[in-house]
Every structure is written in structure tokens, then in C-alpha cells.
Amino acid sequence: MAFLDLFITSSIPVLKVLLVTGLGSYLALDRIGILGDDARKHLNNIIFFVFNPALVSSNLAKEITYESMVKMWFMPFNILITFVIGSILGLVIVRITKAPPHLQGLVIGCCAAGNLGNLLFIIIPTARKERTSTFGDADVCHENGMAYASLSLAIGAIYLWAYVYNIVRVSSSMFSRESSSSPSGGSWTEPLLSSSNSPQDRFENKPPVSVAAKMMKKLEILVEKMNLKRLFAPSTTAAIAGFVVGLVPQIRKLLIGDAAPLRVIQDTALFLGDGAIPAVTLIMGGNLIKGLKGSGIQKSVIIGVLAVRYVALPLTGIAVVKGALRFGLIHNDPLYLFVLLLQFSLPPAMNIGTITQLFGVGESECSVIMLWCYTLASLSLTLWSTVFLWLVS
């Protein structure tokens, strides 16, 4: 296949996202005033409690079966690898840039969590239409592609709301306590990753502490601060419900299919879920207006996040997927391989912006990071998609 054809194929889904994002930015302008701060906040709540859970549960219930789960068993581990490696690299960025404690969770979350659902639901159908010769029969490709995107969305939602949500919540609680603990702004709460030791710690005669012990101490602090009641966010609970409906034949027969007696419930969930992707994309465009106004975030933090998401992770993904294929862990389906590779090259999850707005901390900083990430995604995602299509062809 010609490189130009691959490039055009890869650019079309990215252009779709940019067009909707541009519309969201236009609606958020002060002179338009349709998608202002209050409107975005209320719409975020609707997305959090209604649209995202409906999207996750309905697509999982419809596309996931026991046979497809056996076929796609490696995908949850592939996504976990993106989160683990992204988190490690995010910790490195936090250490190098000495990011403020209340932004450490945001930086780690942006490095760890990619847009594993919304973009795939746009990219996969478009790539299927443009490159049917690469991915095989159109109908089979569509069915498999939607199953891949649904599982990616569900697993990504579980990891995002169980991990990134709590990481950002811990950071925001640090900021709140720092603001209220003393007029001088001093914080008695230890950050997720402290950038330096106090003079007292440096000069006291204390026995040396191993790196492993320090990491265990950080982990204990993090676990203590996590509210397990909030571990199961609406999207996480919806993903569990979707798995149950899809994998239990008796329940599936009641809800899924043209002859199912309770199919109206599934149809309603699909109807609501269809609003999630355009709504989140519009909000992202509105939030990018904040990013244009700037914030106090360090340039080194932005550069670090971009390097992790668009250089380090995609290169790691090629090694992981090629290694898994070589050792027979995954089947040689070009579309499946393409999706696994894409999961390493996506921009940060748009719902990170939703999370920061829910806690009211790091909103402007998140907007700046998203502005740069999604501006460069038009080039980066197109180039990496071209490389991935070439690799799987």
C-alpha cells in the first residue's frame, strides 16, 4: 500500500475529532456563550452519571461474549501495561520537573490514561471503511472492531475511574488541606512524590532508608487516602453490569437481540450512550479555550507529558505487541493488532478533564496539557497510525 494512501486513511478519523473539538471551542467563546463554564460543569455531571455509564454498559453487553473474551484476553493486560509504564514515566516527569503536589496526580494520570474509548469508536469504523483490503470482510471487520473498541472502552474506564480518579482526588485533597492548614501556604500533607527533603531531614542523624521502603511508604499513604466507596465510579459499575449481561446467556437472551423481551432497556442504553462521544468532545473543545488563556503550569511538564504519550509509549507498544505476537499470546488479526498498537499512541483521556472539574483543582493546567496534546495529536496520531497500518499489512 502506498504511504500516501495510509496517511490519508489515518488522518480522516483525526480530522473528525478536530472538527467537533473546534465546534466546542467556538461555542465556548465569550461572545457566543453557549458552552460557558457553568454549562460545561453541568454537562460534565450528565456525562459522568448518565452518558458514559450508558455507553460502556450498552456496548459491552451487545458486543462481548464468552467466545470474544477468550479471543481478546490479552487486551486488558495490554491496557494495564500502558497504565503501568505511563505511570512510571509520569513519576519520572514529576521528579524531574518538581511538579507541585496538587498537580502530581494530573501529570501521572495524563501519562498513564489514554483516550481508549471515544477515539477508537471514531478511528476503527473509519479505518475499516478506508482499508477493507487490509482488515478483510467489511461485516466481520465491523463486528470485531466494535467488540475491540467496546472492550477497550470498558477496561479503560475501569482503570481510569479506579486509578486516575483516586490519584487526582488525593492530589486535590492535598491542595485543599494546604490552603486551609496555614496562612503561609505550608502543607502538612505529604505529596504523592516529594521533590526534596526538608533541611531537618537532611541533618538529622537517621539511618538510611532504602528506595523500596520509601516506595512502600508512598503506597501506604496512597492506599490510606483512597476512599474505597468511590472506587466504583458509575462507569466502573456500568462496565461490570455490561460484562454480566454479555457473558451470562440467560440474561443476554432477555436484553440483547431483536426477539429479546426486555430489548427496550438495551436500546435505551444505546440511545443514551450515543451522546457520550460528541458531548465529551465538545466539552474538550470548550476546555481548550481555557488552555489558550494559559496557566502557571511549567513548560517542562507539558513537554514531558508529550514525550511520554507520543514517543516513549508508542515505541514501547510496538515492542510489547510484536513480542506478544512472536510468543503466540495473541492471534494474527490485522485489526486486533492495529487496536493493540493504537492503545499506546492515543492522547490523554478526555475524562481527565471531567475529573479535574469534579474536584475543582487543576482545571486550567489540565486544559493547557489537553490543548497541546490534542493539537499535536492531529500529527502524531496520524503518523503513528500510518506506521501501525504498515506494520500489520
From TrEMBL:
It is a multi-pass membrane protein. Signal peptide: none annotated. Keywords: Auxin signaling pathway, Endoplasmic reticulum, Membrane, Transmembrane, Transmembrane helix, Transport. It comes from the Eukaryota. GO terms for cellular component: endoplasmic reticulum membrane. Coiled coil: none annotated. The chain crosses the membrane at residues 6-29, 73-94, 106-127, 147-168, 231-249, 269-289, 301-323, 335-359, 371-392. Its main location: endoplasmic reticulum. It is found in: Endoplasmic reticulum membrane. Residues 181-206 are annotated as: Disordered. The keyword Membrane applies. One of its GO terms (biological process) is endoplasmic reticulum to cytosol auxin transport. Belongs to the auxin efflux carrier (TC 2.A.69.2) family. Involved in cellular auxin homeostasis by regulating auxin metabolism. Regulates intracellular auxin accumulation at the endoplasmic reticulum and thus auxin availability for nuclear auxin signaling. This is Protein PIN-LIKES 1 isoform X2.
